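name: query_chain
kind: protein
chains: 1
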Amino acid sequence: MSEDPRAGESSSDPAPSEPARPGVRTDGGAAGADDVALDPWGSATIDDYRKLFEQFGIEEFEEVLPEVPNPHYLMRRGVIFGHRDYRPVADALREGEDAAVLSGFMPTGDPHVGHKMVFDEIIWHQQQGADAYGLIADLEAHAARGLSWDEIDEHTESYLLSLLALGFDPEDGEIYRQSGNREVQDLAFELGTKANFSELQAIYDFDGETNVSYMQSVVTQMADILYPQLDEPKPTVIPVGPDQDPHMRLARDLAARMRFFKVTEAYFSQELEPAELELLGRIVDSGSVSPEDHDDETLRCVHVARFVDALRAGETGSEIEAPPAVLDSLFGKLDEAGMEPIRPRVRFFDRNATEEAFEAIIEAVEGEKRVFEGHVDAFDLSLAEAEELAREIEVDHGGYGFYPPSSIYHRFMTGLTGGKMSSSVPASHISLLDDPEAGYEKVKAATTGGRETAELQRELGGEADECPVYELYAYLLSGDDDEFAKRVYEECVGGERLCGDCKEQAAELMREFLADHQEKREEARELLEGLDLEIETPRR
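structure:
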Protein backbone atom coordinates (compact mmCIF):
# COMPACT_ATOMS: atom_id res chain seq x y z
CA MET A 1 0.00 0.00 0.00
CA SER A 2 2.88 2.38 0.68
CA GLU A 3 4.21 4.06 -2.43
CA ASP A 4 7.73 2.95 -3.23
CA PRO A 5 9.93 5.34 -5.28
CA ARG A 6 9.41 3.39 -8.49
CA ALA A 7 7.32 3.64 -11.62
CA GLY A 8 6.42 1.44 -14.55
CA GLU A 9 6.90 1.14 -18.25
CA SER A 10 5.71 3.22 -21.19
CA SER A 11 2.65 2.33 -23.19
CA SER A 12 2.17 1.28 -26.79
CA ASP A 13 0.32 2.97 -29.63
CA PRO A 14 -3.40 3.64 -29.44
CA ALA A 15 -5.59 1.62 -31.75
CA PRO A 16 -5.92 3.55 -35.03
CA SER A 17 -9.70 3.49 -34.87
CA GLU A 18 -9.83 5.07 -31.42
CA PRO A 19 -8.90 8.72 -30.85
CA ALA A 20 -6.64 9.08 -27.82
CA ARG A 21 -7.49 11.44 -25.01
CA PRO A 22 -4.70 13.49 -23.41
CA GLY A 23 -2.55 11.26 -21.25
CA VAL A 24 -4.51 8.13 -22.10
CA ARG A 25 -3.31 5.05 -23.98
CA THR A 26 -6.43 3.70 -25.58
CA ASP A 27 -5.12 0.12 -25.47
CA GLY A 28 -3.45 0.48 -22.09
CA GLY A 29 -0.42 -1.50 -23.23
CA ALA A 30 3.08 -1.22 -21.81
CA ALA A 31 6.01 -1.64 -24.15
CA GLY A 32 8.78 -3.99 -23.08
CA ALA A 33 6.94 -5.70 -20.24
CA ASP A 34 6.59 -9.46 -20.09
CA ASP A 35 3.38 -10.04 -18.21
CA VAL A 36 1.17 -8.78 -15.42
CA ALA A 37 3.15 -9.04 -12.18
CA LEU A 38 1.63 -7.45 -9.11
CA ASP A 39 4.49 -7.46 -6.63
CA PRO A 40 4.36 -4.64 -4.04
CA TRP A 41 8.14 -4.83 -3.48
CA GLY A 42 9.37 -5.86 -6.94
CA SER A 43 9.59 -4.07 -10.26
CA ALA A 44 6.21 -3.15 -11.66
CA THR A 45 5.74 -4.80 -15.05
CA ILE A 46 2.26 -4.20 -16.38
CA ASP A 47 2.12 -5.64 -19.89
CA ASP A 48 -1.48 -4.67 -20.52
CA TYR A 49 -3.66 -2.71 -18.11
CA ARG A 50 -6.70 -4.53 -19.47
CA LYS A 51 -5.42 -7.73 -17.87
CA LEU A 52 -5.87 -6.09 -14.49
CA PHE A 53 -9.59 -5.85 -15.22
CA GLU A 54 -9.81 -9.42 -16.45
CA GLN A 55 -7.52 -11.21 -13.99
CA PHE A 56 -7.84 -9.26 -10.76
CA GLY A 57 -11.30 -7.70 -10.85
CA ILE A 58 -10.11 -4.10 -11.00
CA GLU A 59 -12.87 -1.98 -12.56
CA GLU A 60 -12.42 0.75 -15.16
CA PHE A 61 -12.48 4.18 -13.55
CA GLU A 62 -14.12 5.67 -16.62
CA GLU A 63 -17.35 3.91 -15.63
CA VAL A 64 -17.55 5.63 -12.23
CA LEU A 65 -16.20 9.02 -13.37
CA PRO A 66 -19.66 10.59 -14.01
CA GLU A 67 -20.53 9.92 -10.36
CA VAL A 68 -17.47 11.77 -8.99
CA PRO A 69 -18.04 15.39 -7.96
CA ASN A 70 -15.49 17.85 -9.37
CA PRO A 71 -13.12 15.10 -10.57
CA HIS A 72 -9.38 15.67 -10.38
CA TYR A 73 -7.55 16.14 -13.68
CA LEU A 74 -5.78 12.79 -13.17
CA MET A 75 -9.22 11.21 -13.21
CA ARG A 76 -10.42 13.20 -16.21
CA ARG A 77 -7.33 12.35 -18.29
CA GLY A 78 -7.39 8.64 -17.56
CA VAL A 79 -4.17 8.66 -15.53
CA ILE A 80 -6.30 7.20 -12.75
CA PHE A 81 -7.50 4.29 -14.85
CA GLY A 82 -9.01 1.76 -12.43
CA HIS A 83 -10.71 1.31 -9.11
CA ARG A 84 -11.91 -1.29 -6.69
CA ASP A 85 -15.31 -0.46 -5.17
CA TYR A 86 -14.89 3.34 -5.38
CA ARG A 87 -18.61 4.08 -5.71
CA PRO A 88 -19.31 4.25 -1.93
CA VAL A 89 -16.59 6.91 -1.65
CA ALA A 90 -17.88 8.87 -4.66
CA ASP A 91 -21.41 8.70 -3.25
CA ALA A 92 -20.26 9.96 0.15
CA LEU A 93 -18.33 12.87 -1.37
CA ARG A 94 -21.27 13.80 -3.57
CA GLU A 95 -23.77 13.65 -0.70
CA GLY A 96 -21.52 15.38 1.84
CA GLU A 97 -21.30 12.27 4.02
CA ASP A 98 -18.31 10.88 5.91
CA ALA A 99 -15.47 9.42 3.85
CA ALA A 100 -11.72 9.04 4.24
CA VAL A 101 -8.56 8.81 2.13
CA LEU A 102 -5.20 7.33 3.15
CA SER A 103 -1.97 6.50 1.45
CA GLY A 104 1.54 5.81 2.66
CA PHE A 105 5.09 6.40 1.55
CA MET A 106 8.09 4.17 2.10
CA PRO A 107 10.98 6.57 2.81
CA THR A 108 13.67 4.84 0.74
CA GLY A 109 14.76 7.85 -1.32
CA ASP A 110 13.80 11.36 -2.35
CA PRO A 111 10.18 12.02 -3.37
CA HIS A 112 9.83 12.47 -7.12
CA VAL A 113 7.15 13.49 -9.60
CA GLY A 114 5.63 9.98 -9.49
CA HIS A 115 4.92 10.45 -5.79
CA LYS A 116 3.32 13.81 -6.52
CA MET A 117 0.41 11.98 -8.13
CA VAL A 118 -0.36 10.25 -4.83
CA PHE A 119 0.13 13.44 -2.82
CA ASP A 120 -2.34 15.15 -5.17
CA GLU A 121 -4.89 12.34 -4.85
CA ILE A 122 -4.83 12.56 -1.04
CA ILE A 123 -5.09 16.35 -1.09
CA TRP A 124 -7.93 16.37 -3.65
CA HIS A 125 -10.00 13.99 -1.53
CA GLN A 126 -9.33 16.13 1.53
CA GLN A 127 -10.52 19.21 -0.37
CA GLN A 128 -13.71 17.35 -1.33
CA GLY A 129 -14.48 16.78 2.37
CA ALA A 130 -12.85 13.42 3.14
CA ASP A 131 -10.84 12.80 6.30
CA ALA A 132 -7.25 12.61 5.06
CA TYR A 133 -4.34 10.52 6.33
CA GLY A 134 -0.73 10.48 5.19
CA LEU A 135 1.65 7.98 6.72
CA ILE A 136 5.31 7.16 6.65
CA ALA A 137 5.77 3.40 6.28
CA ASP A 138 8.95 3.28 8.35
CA LEU A 139 8.37 -0.20 9.79
CA GLU A 140 7.96 -1.53 6.26
CA ALA A 141 11.10 0.30 5.05
CA HIS A 142 13.11 -1.16 7.92
CA ALA A 143 11.76 -4.73 7.66
CA ALA A 144 11.26 -5.12 3.90
CA ARG A 145 14.06 -2.89 2.56
CA GLY A 146 16.60 -3.09 5.39
CA LEU A 147 16.99 0.68 5.77
CA SER A 148 18.56 1.95 8.96
CA TRP A 149 16.51 4.23 11.19
CA ASP A 150 18.89 7.11 10.42
CA GLU A 151 18.26 6.68 6.70
CA ILE A 152 14.51 6.50 7.29
CA ASP A 153 14.56 9.69 9.39
CA GLU A 154 16.49 11.52 6.68
CA HIS A 155 13.86 10.78 4.03
CA THR A 156 10.81 11.09 6.29
CA GLU A 157 11.12 14.85 6.62
CA SER A 158 11.49 15.24 2.87
CA TYR A 159 8.29 13.36 2.06
CA LEU A 160 6.29 15.28 4.62
CA LEU A 161 7.57 18.66 3.47
CA SER A 162 6.42 17.94 -0.09
CA LEU A 163 3.03 16.68 1.09
CA LEU A 164 2.49 19.88 3.09
CA ALA A 165 3.89 22.12 0.34
CA LEU A 166 1.40 20.68 -2.16
CA GLY A 167 -1.54 21.59 0.05
CA PHE A 168 -2.21 18.88 2.66
CA ASP A 169 -3.96 20.51 5.63
CA PRO A 170 -2.59 18.90 8.82
CA GLU A 171 -5.19 20.66 10.99
CA ASP A 172 -7.94 18.89 9.07
CA GLY A 173 -6.04 15.63 8.53
CA GLU A 174 -3.54 13.34 10.19
CA ILE A 175 0.08 12.49 9.49
CA TYR A 176 1.81 9.66 11.34
CA ARG A 177 4.66 7.17 11.33
CA GLN A 178 3.82 3.50 11.62
CA SER A 179 6.35 3.08 14.41
CA GLY A 180 4.82 5.88 16.46
CA ASN A 181 1.15 4.94 16.16
CA ARG A 182 0.18 2.51 18.93
CA GLU A 183 -3.42 2.26 17.68
CA VAL A 184 -2.18 1.01 14.31
CA GLN A 185 0.09 -1.53 15.97
CA ASP A 186 -2.71 -2.76 18.25
CA LEU A 187 -5.05 -3.11 15.28
CA ALA A 188 -2.32 -4.97 13.36
CA PHE A 189 -2.12 -7.47 16.23
CA GLU A 190 -5.88 -8.08 16.06
CA LEU A 191 -5.81 -8.41 12.26
CA GLY A 192 -2.98 -10.91 12.61
CA THR A 193 -5.38 -13.29 14.35
CA LYS A 194 -7.32 -13.50 11.07
CA ALA A 195 -4.35 -14.14 8.75
CA ASN A 196 -1.93 -17.06 8.52
CA PHE A 197 1.45 -17.85 7.02
CA SER A 198 0.05 -19.97 4.19
CA GLU A 199 -2.02 -17.03 3.03
CA LEU A 200 0.89 -14.58 3.13
CA GLN A 201 3.05 -17.15 1.38
CA ALA A 202 0.52 -17.47 -1.46
CA ILE A 203 0.05 -13.71 -1.87
CA TYR A 204 3.61 -12.47 -1.37
CA ASP A 205 5.71 -15.55 -2.13
CA PHE A 206 7.15 -15.59 1.40
CA ASP A 207 9.21 -18.66 2.29
CA GLY A 208 11.18 -20.14 5.16
CA GLU A 209 13.85 -17.45 4.81
CA THR A 210 11.40 -14.54 5.18
CA ASN A 211 11.94 -12.78 8.48
CA VAL A 212 9.03 -12.38 10.87
CA SER A 213 9.26 -8.57 10.92
CA TYR A 214 8.81 -8.54 7.15
CA MET A 215 5.57 -10.53 7.54
CA GLN A 216 4.49 -8.29 10.41
CA SER A 217 5.00 -5.23 8.21
CA VAL A 218 2.30 -6.61 5.89
CA VAL A 219 -0.20 -6.88 8.73
CA THR A 220 0.79 -3.36 9.82
CA GLN A 221 -0.10 -2.10 6.35
CA MET A 222 -3.47 -3.80 6.66
CA ALA A 223 -3.96 -1.88 9.90
CA ASP A 224 -2.94 1.37 8.15
CA ILE A 225 -5.59 0.79 5.49
CA LEU A 226 -8.32 0.25 8.09
CA TYR A 227 -7.07 2.85 10.58
CA PRO A 228 -9.33 5.69 9.31
CA GLN A 229 -12.34 3.57 10.38
CA LEU A 230 -11.24 2.94 13.97
CA ASP A 231 -13.37 5.72 15.47
CA GLU A 232 -16.26 5.29 13.05
CA PRO A 233 -16.76 3.05 10.00
CA LYS A 234 -16.85 5.03 6.77
CA PRO A 235 -16.08 4.52 3.05
CA THR A 236 -12.31 4.83 2.68
CA VAL A 237 -10.16 5.02 -0.45
CA ILE A 238 -6.49 4.13 -0.81
CA PRO A 239 -4.80 5.72 -3.89
CA VAL A 240 -2.03 3.40 -5.13
CA GLY A 241 -0.26 2.06 -8.17
CA PRO A 242 -1.61 -1.25 -9.51
CA ASP A 243 1.41 -3.14 -8.12
CA GLN A 244 -0.04 -2.51 -4.64
CA ASP A 245 -3.30 -4.33 -5.40
CA PRO A 246 -2.30 -7.49 -3.48
CA HIS A 247 -2.34 -5.37 -0.32
CA MET A 248 -5.83 -4.12 -1.15
CA ARG A 249 -7.27 -7.56 -1.77
CA LEU A 250 -5.88 -8.84 1.52
CA ALA A 251 -7.12 -5.77 3.40
CA ARG A 252 -10.63 -6.23 2.04
CA ASP A 253 -10.59 -9.90 3.07
CA LEU A 254 -9.37 -9.09 6.57
CA ALA A 255 -11.94 -6.31 6.96
CA ALA A 256 -14.67 -8.84 6.17
CA ARG A 257 -13.23 -11.44 8.56
CA MET A 258 -13.28 -8.92 11.41
CA ARG A 259 -16.98 -8.26 10.94
CA PHE A 260 -19.57 -9.72 13.34
CA PHE A 261 -21.90 -10.65 10.49
CA LYS A 262 -21.66 -11.61 6.86
CA VAL A 263 -24.70 -10.27 5.04
CA THR A 264 -25.69 -11.83 1.74
CA GLU A 265 -28.67 -12.50 -0.47
CA ALA A 266 -30.18 -15.99 -0.36
CA TYR A 267 -32.96 -17.95 -2.03
CA PHE A 268 -33.27 -21.11 0.07
CA SER A 269 -31.75 -22.62 3.21
CA GLN A 270 -28.34 -23.69 1.89
CA GLU A 271 -25.40 -21.31 1.76
CA LEU A 272 -24.20 -20.56 -1.77
CA GLU A 273 -20.82 -19.44 -3.00
CA PRO A 274 -20.80 -15.98 -4.67
CA ALA A 275 -20.69 -17.44 -8.20
CA GLU A 276 -23.55 -19.83 -7.41
CA LEU A 277 -25.60 -17.03 -5.88
CA GLU A 278 -25.02 -14.79 -8.88
CA LEU A 279 -26.08 -17.55 -11.27
CA LEU A 280 -29.21 -18.41 -9.31
CA GLY A 281 -30.14 -14.73 -9.20
CA ARG A 282 -29.88 -14.50 -12.97
CA ILE A 283 -32.06 -17.59 -13.42
CA VAL A 284 -34.76 -16.33 -11.05
CA ASP A 285 -34.73 -12.79 -12.48
CA SER A 286 -34.91 -14.09 -16.06
CA GLY A 287 -38.20 -15.88 -15.43
CA SER A 288 -36.81 -18.91 -17.23
CA VAL A 289 -38.43 -21.16 -14.63
CA SER A 290 -41.94 -19.95 -13.87
CA PRO A 291 -44.17 -21.07 -10.96
CA GLU A 292 -47.08 -21.12 -13.40
CA ASP A 293 -45.56 -24.31 -14.77
CA HIS A 294 -46.35 -26.16 -11.55
CA ASP A 295 -49.53 -27.27 -9.82
CA ASP A 296 -49.24 -25.16 -6.66
CA GLU A 297 -47.65 -22.16 -8.44
CA THR A 298 -44.70 -22.29 -6.02
CA LEU A 299 -41.22 -22.18 -7.51
CA ARG A 300 -39.18 -24.86 -5.77
CA CYS A 301 -35.54 -25.90 -5.72
CA VAL A 302 -36.24 -29.11 -7.61
CA HIS A 303 -37.74 -27.14 -10.50
CA VAL A 304 -34.70 -24.85 -10.77
CA ALA A 305 -32.43 -27.88 -10.42
CA ARG A 306 -34.02 -29.41 -13.52
CA PHE A 307 -33.40 -26.17 -15.42
CA VAL A 308 -29.76 -26.04 -14.27
CA ASP A 309 -29.33 -29.68 -15.29
CA ALA A 310 -30.65 -28.79 -18.72
CA LEU A 311 -28.21 -25.86 -18.86
CA ARG A 312 -25.40 -28.31 -18.15
CA ALA A 313 -26.52 -30.43 -21.08
CA GLY A 314 -27.04 -27.43 -23.36
CA GLU A 315 -30.71 -28.30 -23.85
CA THR A 316 -32.50 -25.09 -22.81
CA GLY A 317 -31.80 -22.66 -25.64
CA SER A 318 -31.24 -20.11 -22.87
CA GLU A 319 -28.60 -17.40 -23.13
CA ILE A 320 -27.68 -17.94 -19.48
CA GLU A 321 -24.10 -19.21 -19.23
CA ALA A 322 -21.81 -20.19 -16.37
CA PRO A 323 -18.65 -22.24 -15.85
CA PRO A 324 -19.36 -26.00 -15.69
CA ALA A 325 -18.06 -26.22 -12.12
CA VAL A 326 -20.54 -23.57 -10.97
CA LEU A 327 -23.41 -25.27 -12.78
CA ASP A 328 -22.48 -28.59 -11.18
CA SER A 329 -22.20 -27.26 -7.64
CA LEU A 330 -25.43 -25.24 -7.85
CA PHE A 331 -27.30 -28.24 -9.27
CA GLY A 332 -26.12 -30.39 -6.38
CA LYS A 333 -27.33 -27.95 -3.74
CA LEU A 334 -30.68 -27.36 -5.44
CA ASP A 335 -31.23 -31.07 -5.95
CA GLU A 336 -30.46 -31.77 -2.30
CA ALA A 337 -32.93 -29.08 -1.18
CA GLY A 338 -35.68 -30.83 -3.17
CA MET A 339 -39.14 -29.33 -2.67
CA GLU A 340 -37.99 -26.36 -0.60
CA PRO A 341 -39.49 -23.14 -2.04
CA ILE A 342 -37.29 -20.55 -3.74
CA ARG A 343 -37.86 -17.29 -1.82
CA PRO A 344 -35.54 -14.26 -2.08
CA ARG A 345 -34.26 -13.05 1.30
CA VAL A 346 -31.24 -11.54 3.01
CA ARG A 347 -29.17 -13.62 5.40
CA PHE A 348 -27.13 -12.60 8.44
CA PHE A 349 -24.35 -15.13 9.05
CA ASP A 350 -22.76 -15.16 12.49
CA ARG A 351 -19.02 -14.67 11.90
CA ASN A 352 -17.64 -13.19 15.10
CA ALA A 353 -20.75 -11.93 16.85
CA THR A 354 -21.09 -12.03 20.60
CA GLU A 355 -24.16 -13.79 21.95
CA GLU A 356 -25.62 -10.40 22.82
CA ALA A 357 -25.03 -9.06 19.29
CA PHE A 358 -26.65 -12.12 17.69
CA GLU A 359 -29.71 -11.71 19.92
CA ALA A 360 -29.79 -8.01 19.06
CA ILE A 361 -29.85 -8.70 15.31
CA ILE A 362 -32.75 -11.12 15.80
CA GLU A 363 -34.64 -8.49 17.77
CA ALA A 364 -33.86 -5.71 15.27
CA VAL A 365 -35.06 -7.54 12.15
CA GLU A 366 -38.63 -6.46 11.46
CA GLY A 367 -41.18 -8.39 9.44
CA GLU A 368 -40.94 -12.04 8.53
CA LYS A 369 -37.75 -13.77 9.65
CA ARG A 370 -36.42 -17.21 10.39
CA VAL A 371 -33.80 -17.89 13.04
CA PHE A 372 -31.29 -20.71 12.71
CA GLU A 373 -28.33 -21.73 14.82
CA GLY A 374 -25.76 -19.82 12.78
CA HIS A 375 -27.78 -17.36 10.76
CA VAL A 376 -30.95 -15.30 10.50
CA ASP A 377 -33.03 -14.97 7.34
CA ALA A 378 -35.01 -11.74 6.81
CA PHE A 379 -37.67 -11.58 4.09
CA ASP A 380 -38.67 -7.91 4.25
CA LEU A 381 -35.27 -6.16 4.12
CA SER A 382 -33.22 -5.08 1.12
CA LEU A 383 -29.55 -6.03 1.02
CA ALA A 384 -28.51 -2.40 1.66
CA GLU A 385 -30.85 -2.12 4.64
CA ALA A 386 -29.55 -5.38 6.05
CA GLU A 387 -25.91 -4.34 5.69
CA GLU A 388 -26.55 -1.06 7.48
CA LEU A 389 -28.45 -2.81 10.26
CA ALA A 390 -25.63 -5.34 10.73
CA ARG A 391 -23.05 -2.57 10.94
CA GLU A 392 -25.14 -0.60 13.44
CA ILE A 393 -25.62 -3.62 15.72
CA GLU A 394 -21.93 -4.51 15.48
CA VAL A 395 -20.69 -1.05 16.44
CA ASP A 396 -23.22 -0.82 19.28
CA HIS A 397 -21.78 -4.07 20.67
CA GLY A 398 -18.11 -3.16 20.49
CA GLY A 399 -17.22 -4.29 16.97
CA TYR A 400 -15.45 -2.36 14.22
CA GLY A 401 -18.10 -2.45 11.48
CA PHE A 402 -15.46 -1.93 8.79
CA TYR A 403 -16.47 -0.98 5.26
CA PRO A 404 -14.37 -2.88 2.70
CA PRO A 405 -11.61 -0.38 1.82
CA SER A 406 -11.78 1.00 -1.72
CA SER A 407 -8.85 1.80 -3.99
CA ILE A 408 -8.03 3.82 -7.08
CA TYR A 409 -5.13 2.98 -9.41
CA HIS A 410 -2.93 5.33 -11.41
CA ARG A 411 -0.76 4.53 -14.37
CA PHE A 412 2.99 4.32 -13.92
CA MET A 413 5.10 7.15 -15.28
CA THR A 414 7.65 6.37 -17.96
CA GLY A 415 11.27 7.20 -17.17
CA LEU A 416 12.70 10.23 -18.93
CA THR A 417 15.29 7.96 -20.52
CA GLY A 418 12.66 5.42 -21.61
CA GLY A 419 11.74 2.22 -19.80
CA LYS A 420 10.71 2.50 -16.20
CA MET A 421 11.22 5.46 -13.91
CA SER A 422 13.56 4.50 -11.08
CA SER A 423 14.95 6.45 -8.14
CA SER A 424 18.18 4.47 -8.58
CA VAL A 425 18.62 6.00 -12.06
CA PRO A 426 18.74 9.79 -11.46
CA ALA A 427 18.40 10.67 -15.15
CA SER A 428 15.14 8.70 -15.40
CA HIS A 429 13.16 10.78 -12.92
CA ILE A 430 12.66 14.29 -11.62
CA SER A 431 13.14 14.48 -7.88
CA LEU A 432 11.06 17.08 -6.10
CA LEU A 433 14.38 18.09 -4.52
CA ASP A 434 16.22 18.52 -7.82
CA ASP A 435 17.72 21.94 -8.39
CA PRO A 436 15.39 23.71 -10.84
CA GLU A 437 18.21 24.02 -13.35
CA ALA A 438 18.94 20.29 -13.04
CA GLY A 439 15.26 19.57 -13.63
CA TYR A 440 15.38 21.78 -16.70
CA GLU A 441 18.38 19.89 -18.07
CA LYS A 442 16.84 16.46 -17.40
CA VAL A 443 13.76 17.35 -19.43
CA LYS A 444 15.88 18.80 -22.22
CA ALA A 445 17.81 15.50 -22.36
CA ALA A 446 14.73 13.29 -22.18
CA THR A 447 13.72 10.69 -24.76
CA THR A 448 10.73 11.72 -26.90
CA GLY A 449 8.18 10.16 -29.19
CA GLY A 450 9.41 12.22 -32.10
CA ARG A 451 10.25 11.07 -35.62
CA GLU A 452 13.77 10.71 -37.01
CA THR A 453 13.67 14.09 -38.78
CA ALA A 454 11.71 17.31 -38.57
CA GLU A 455 10.35 16.63 -42.04
CA LEU A 456 8.93 13.26 -40.99
CA GLN A 457 7.54 14.84 -37.84
CA ARG A 458 5.66 17.41 -39.88
CA GLU A 459 4.46 14.76 -42.31
CA LEU A 460 3.52 11.91 -39.94
CA GLY A 461 3.15 13.69 -36.62
CA GLY A 462 4.82 12.76 -33.37
CA GLU A 463 4.00 9.73 -31.24
CA ALA A 464 2.76 11.47 -28.11
CA ASP A 465 1.49 8.20 -26.66
CA GLU A 466 5.08 6.92 -26.47
CA CYS A 467 6.62 10.15 -25.25
CA PRO A 468 7.86 10.63 -21.65
CA VAL A 469 7.84 14.38 -22.20
CA TYR A 470 4.17 14.40 -23.15
CA GLU A 471 3.48 12.40 -19.98
CA LEU A 472 5.00 15.27 -18.02
CA TYR A 473 2.47 17.60 -19.61
CA ALA A 474 -0.46 15.26 -18.97
CA TYR A 475 0.50 14.17 -15.45
CA LEU A 476 1.99 17.39 -14.08
CA LEU A 477 2.87 20.39 -16.21
CA SER A 478 -0.62 21.13 -17.56
CA GLY A 479 -2.03 21.26 -14.05
CA ASP A 480 -5.81 21.55 -14.15
CA ASP A 481 -5.81 22.97 -17.70
CA ASP A 482 -7.23 20.15 -19.85
CA GLU A 483 -7.33 22.39 -22.93
CA PHE A 484 -3.58 22.99 -22.69
CA ALA A 485 -2.86 19.26 -22.36
CA LYS A 486 -5.13 18.54 -25.30
CA ARG A 487 -3.54 21.26 -27.43
CA VAL A 488 -0.02 19.91 -26.81
CA TYR A 489 -1.20 16.42 -27.76
CA GLU A 490 -3.00 17.50 -30.93
CA GLU A 491 -0.14 19.75 -32.08
CA CYS A 492 2.28 16.84 -31.58
CA VAL A 493 0.33 14.15 -33.43
CA GLY A 494 -0.68 16.69 -36.07
CA GLY A 495 2.95 17.51 -36.89
CA GLU A 496 2.72 21.17 -35.82
CA ARG A 497 4.85 20.74 -32.68
CA LEU A 498 8.50 19.72 -33.00
CA CYS A 499 10.34 17.97 -30.17
CA GLY A 500 12.93 20.68 -29.60
CA ASP A 501 10.35 23.38 -28.96
CA CYS A 502 8.15 21.00 -27.01
CA LYS A 503 10.98 19.96 -24.69
CA GLU A 504 12.04 23.57 -24.23
CA GLN A 505 8.55 24.52 -23.10
CA ALA A 506 8.30 21.48 -20.81
CA ALA A 507 11.75 22.17 -19.36
CA GLU A 508 10.80 25.77 -18.60
CA LEU A 509 7.58 24.67 -16.93
CA MET A 510 9.47 22.06 -14.91
CA ARG A 511 11.99 24.64 -13.75
CA GLU A 512 9.15 26.91 -12.65
CA PHE A 513 7.36 24.07 -10.88
CA LEU A 514 10.46 22.95 -8.95
CA ALA A 515 11.36 26.49 -7.93
CA ASP A 516 7.84 27.14 -6.70
CA HIS A 517 7.55 23.78 -4.96
CA GLN A 518 10.87 24.13 -3.16
CA GLU A 519 9.95 27.61 -1.98
CA LYS A 520 6.73 26.18 -0.56
CA ARG A 521 8.70 23.33 1.05
CA GLU A 522 10.74 25.88 2.98
CA GLU A 523 7.56 27.62 4.08
CA ALA A 524 6.21 24.25 5.23
CA ARG A 525 9.16 23.61 7.59
CA GLU A 526 7.66 25.75 10.33
CA LEU A 527 4.32 23.98 9.88
CA LEU A 528 6.01 20.56 10.12
CA GLU A 529 7.92 21.54 13.24
CA GLY A 530 4.63 22.54 14.87
CA LEU A 531 3.06 19.11 14.37
CA ASP A 532 2.91 16.54 17.15
CA LEU A 533 5.08 14.15 15.17
CA GLU A 534 8.49 12.65 15.84
CA ILE A 535 10.65 13.20 12.77
CA GLU A 536 13.59 11.47 14.44
CA THR A 537 12.65 8.06 15.77
CA PRO A 538 14.00 6.93 19.16
CA ARG A 539 14.59 3.47 17.65
CA ARG A 540 18.05 2.22 16.75
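note: The longest strand covers residues 100-105.
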